[in-house]
Amino acid sequence: MLKSLLIANRGEIACRIIRTARRLGIRTVAVYSDADAKALHVRDADEAVHIGPSPARESYLVGDKIIAAATATGAEAIHPGYGFLSENADFAQAVIDAGLIWVGPKPHSIRAMGLKDAAKKLMQEAGVPTTPGYLGEDQSPDRLKAEADAIGYPVLIKAVAGGGGKGMRRVDAPQDFADALVSCQREAASSFGNTQVLIEKYILSPRHIEVQVFGDSHGHIVHLFERDCSLQRRHQKVIEEAPAPGMDQATREAVCGAAVKAAKAVDYEGAGTIEFIADASEGLRADRIWFMEMNTRLQVEHPVTEEITGQDLVEWQLRVASGEKLPKTQDELSINGWAMEARLYAEDPAKGFLPSIGKLEAFMLGEGVRIDTGVQEGAEVSPFYDPMIAKLIAHGPTRDDARLALAEALDESIVWPVRSNAGFLVRALEHPDFAAGTVDTGLIAREGEALIPAALPSDEALADAAAAFAEQSLAGFRLNAPPQRKVLLAVNDELVAVELPDDAADQSLALDDHAEPEPILLSEDGQTWLVQPYRATGAAAGIAGDGAIISPMPGRIIAVEVAAGQAVAKGQKLVTLEAMKMEHTLTAPFDGTVAELNAAAGAQVSEGTLLVRVEASPE
Ligand code: ADP
Ligand code: ADP
Ligand code: MG
């Protein structure tokens, strides 16, 4: 077994790998950027090496610095985690050339699966069913359009170098093809530096089914059953589970068998995932599940497989990298119960899933579930990396046990002042279709608004808060004298009039001592609000409503949709900003005119920049 290991990653996955390494008695070395100097993974590791400035391309993506850090600390091996350099075959080769052990598949296996078109061709040769489509060299728009027509709409245009749900466009009708192609190629060029695309039949009622595979250097390959990752937003996974609902034994054997065949075709070693797309219009059927791509690394959602199989996949990776045989044979592996994982993001579902950054003043996640996280209370969520801050994983005897335990843990979570998607996750878990296991990848897009948590706490919760403040009493707190008994509360940055319960109103009249009630954090259904009594001066300064559209984080303007002086309607798009790998559209808060415009396409803006000021139309 290895004696020392450098982890070329950050966040929850770095902490996760360190945990297993420590249990196995392996010395751990972390690497970190400026922004991560105080990060949890740095504290958890035995040693840590600073590798550069905050942007990933100057630190976590610089292979030479990472190899130098391993050499300097005498680390024997490098584990890449997921993302960053994990699927970079040149880096894997450089690690090996430096005399270090690469915890991952051989570079030629990574290369074989690196581009989606080449991977699909290889799978076809190996006899693995693939989605029907065009994989050709001829990339002229006319040829691509002709191929799409022949496949039949809807089709999906995919960047061959794509990943993370980027570089994909669904096209429903022939007349939309040309525009979709241009926009797909533009995104592919900027994100992956490669404009090559393939065209696939768009599968209707699609479910994302994937199989965990594992190989060792002695020629053994096993699978650890399937996961279902159909609950997605913009082609990115949100909630994952294992096993897949509605999977019968024969179908499982077929799809897991195909996955093992795929792994054998690329001489696979270590942890990998074969992703399939299933047409679930008539349930899961072996003849309607097709290979989509292979991820040649540990996957974000690997914990659900760990929970149902009782295996530690990071331990498996480290044993295989040390030259040992796989810890279990196929016959020794079985499924125990059900596991479900939710990805907790620092983002605000109510504001178009805008990433949220800042200090985690409160970070308390619910109990009774496994939590894999890379942050703790007091940590900073920076704008430089992926906004995933934790994964919550529930395991129980049945799917409903796992689902309800997960919903409860999310429901109890308090995250503040950074916003989180916990409330959104609770609603997704409680959605009747998801509860019934009849999910497909379009559920979130279809349900849209219904899954967005309420903007404000319930009337009951606000009335309780108002009553609590009334008990502490504050003269200026009362808006109206009885009988209306209404008070104004500042809830985050909004003013809300709340009706006081009868008894509380009486109390507030009785006391008039100018005590200063403390603001409280109110948490309900996974959402957290700062609530305080509104005082006409001071306390609620900064309340929105002046029509100033401020850049919520550092980013780049990618489109300006309005001109100065233009009349705009509430909700109309003003400016699109790209930040934290995502696009965010800023919209008009009310009807009015564009009184000020400080945004130009292509410009880099810092957090807090006034981009647009909308002046309200006269009533
Ligand atoms: P898939 O690629 O099929 O979506 P995962 O769900 O395991 O598989 O996603 C890989 C993860 O790696 C995602 O969470 C993604 O945000 C993250 N990731 C991808 N590229 C990078 C990168 N350059 N830096 C940091 N994280 C990344
Ligand atoms: P990435 O590398 O970005 O993970 P994938 O090829 O794995 O790209 O596709 C991501 C997601 O897009 C899938 O999980 C699925 O939801 C959807 N998708 C991909 N191919 C198809 C298809 N042919 N039909 C329908 N949906 C698809
Ligand atoms: Mg994928």
UniProtKB/TrEMBL annotation:
PROSITE patterns xref list: ATP_GRASP, BC, BIOTIN, BIOTINYL_LIPOYL, CPSASE_2
Pfam families, A to Z: Biotin_carb_C, Biotin_carb_N, Biotin_lipoyl, CPSase_L_D2
Keywords per UniProt: ATP-binding, Biotin, Ligase, Nucleotide-binding
Chain ranges passing through the membrane: none
Every Biotin carboxylation domain range: 1-449
Residue span(s) of domain Lipoyl-binding: 538-615
Domain ATP-grasp: 120-322
Reported cofactor(s): biotin
Protein name as annotated: Acetyl/propionyl/methylcrotonyl-CoA carboxylase subunit alpha
Organism this protein belongs to: Sphingomonas tabacisoli
